[in-house]
Task: structure prediction
Amino acid sequence: MMIYSIESAVQAQTKIQRSEFIAYLHPVANMEATLAILKDHQMAYANATHNCYAYVLGYAQETQYYADAGEPGGTAGKPILNSLLRNDLSGVLAVVTRYYGGIKLGVKGLIDAYTEATQMAIELAILCPYIHYLKIKLCTDYGFLESLRHQLLEYEVQELSADYTDKVQLELRVPEVQHKALCVFLAGYKAMGRLDFDLEDLP
Result:
């Protein structure tokens, strides 16, 4: 199954029985980014009746969470989460802000409303394949740098930063699907004393 994320933040709005439902979708790389965006949203829309949300993280959608934020249990956060999962999304935070219009919708009405708002936002989003990256910290000599950079292109490696001191310290990232082959490649040069490296997960 192909897993997707979204290229940029989007929002959609619908009005149901005088209540306003505004769905916001954000692409998120990790838990830290998710919680930071969520905190900012809750502060910006503190006057809303509810800020219900859900998020999915990980290449296998292994991190899932939702919150009803004061709505009856299972009527808001879970429908939002289900919408993300039904569309095979990960690396996405969805927040649906509700301004109560004075008419109670009931359990089914709430589930339908939060589902509809989230789905509307998803349909506006530009989807892209979800790629889980690993981070590499690599140290090498100046004389080997350009040759190494050229060879790394084969593994779809992206350079995040470079620190030039007595040696060159590179911070890179590589798609998870390439990391095994890359480790074999780098280990060969490490054994020759041409470089040193450390590979870690990007949560």
